[in-house]
Amino acid sequence: MSSLFRRKPIAIDHGDGPVLARTLSWPHLVALGVGAIVGTGILTLIGVGADRAGPAVMLSFAIAGAICACAALAYAEMSTMIPASGSAYTYSYVVLGEVIAWVIGWSLILEYSLVVSTVAVGWSGYASALLTPLGFPVALTNGPELGGIVNVPAVFIIAVVAGLLCFGTKESATLNAVLVAVKLVALTVFVIVALPHFDPANLHPFMTHGFTASVDPDGKERGVMAAAAIIFFAFYGFDAISTAAEETKNPGRDLSIGIIGSMFGCIIIYVGVAVAAVGELSYTRFAGSPEPLALILRDIGRPGFATFLAASAVIALPTVLLGFLFGQSRIFFVMARDGLLPAGLAKVSRRGAPVRITLMTAALVAVIAGVMPIDAIAALANAGTLAAFVAVCVCMMVMRRRAPDAERTFRAPLAPVVGTLGVLGCAYLFFSLPTKTQGYFLLWNVVGLGLYFVYGRNRAAVA
């Protein structure tokens, strides 16, 4: 039984094992985080959130952002204390033990797979609208369950991003920074154009469905916290930064700047967009819309800006794919290097990029995106992320007691308060998710634990 909770040392030595090339600095990390965070979430989920919370959706954004901020502070401290790839998986291995680390790593694989697949299908929707008028077969823009054969555009964009990551980490991070700038310009333009049309009357009544999550007669969970549990999808992505620890030139400084800078910057952007959107147009008119921001711009007679926003989304959405595909490949890489997955996957190219695991990861998510409809099951990604965030907050609090004098180049302020709020907030959001989602998450981890006991436990490098 004790072997289930065996731990890695804090100073992780990889010996003669594969090592990733250190090519990234803090601007690359901030761009990686913002690129992963700002995506389909803010472009579409504000409509879903408004349907569940009414004008109080701006409060839902603030609550989800505050909970993520607590987790971000914990990530920043742990990443500078344990500057190794693997993110929450590695921190859990060092602090909580192997079986907990496996559950967290398995949950992160679920998170990243679903996010990459969902975003790829979302990008395909924009691209297909441009391709089908040119004669591209409709059957090649959807999976079998939606009447098609395979979603070729979704598979294509995953292949492009994977190829970029295989070419080199620094090169892909530099291009990512450029595309992130395009997204930020588009959202800034939306706020500047929409905010002058702000009408306080659109904020009344404010909390139309109450604060706590409750089920309405139509079967949907509504309320500020129900919306926050869904909107949470729009905030995570900063955790992908911590997977880049071994590829960062100065991890003690750059990781904390990257994590905190991207997280707090995105909170400001999101709340600003939410205020501008809800204040300009009654939430009932854009609730549930697949393109709420573009709809609002057209409502105020600015169709040109609406087109610019949509075009920016097509150009810049691949940054979300890059951020999460980067993170997922690093989680796979570290678990393989630790022996929990086949060690042959932990190989790096001459440029120091984990090409083999990147290609395997891309193939996995391409199958999901190409043939499966994602729809509401994407809420599973939230469940996996919430589990990881809880683990990192717990790790921070445990290490404050177990090793109070250990070197930390960044220390979270009021760590017991921040950690406790992070754990309680994530737990509340988890239980605000649909019951079916919670059941699927439990099933996923039962399967994962079966794999661990059959394969990983006896092959672990620390065994």
Would you give an account of this structure?
- This protein has helices spanning about 25-35, 40-55, 55-80, 85-95, 100-130, 150-165, 170-195, 225-230, 240, 250-280, 285, 290-300, 305-315, 320-335, 355-370, 380-400, 415-430, 435-455, and strands at about 215, 220.
- With about 475 residues, the chain is mainly alpha-helical.
- The protein has a two-stranded antiparallel ribbon with strand order 1-2.
- It is globular and about 60 Å long.
- The model has no long low-confidence stretch (mean pLDDT about 80).
Give the overall silhouette: globular
Radius of gyration: 21 Å
The CATH architecture would be Up-down Bundle
Number of strands: 2
Strand and helix order? HHHHHHHEEHHHHHHHHHHH
Number of helices: 18
**Could you state the CATH homologous superfamily?**
Amino acid/polyamine transporter I
- Kindly report the CATH topology: Amino acid/polyamine transporter I
Largest sheet: 2 strands, antiparallel
Strand order of the largest sheet: 1-2
Estimated share of beta-strand residues: under 5%
Structural class label:
mainly alpha
The number of domains is 1
Mean pLDDT rating? 81
Distance between the termini: 13 Å
Low-confidence stretches: none
Q: What is the CATH domain class?
A: Mainly Alpha
- Share of helix, binned: 55-70%
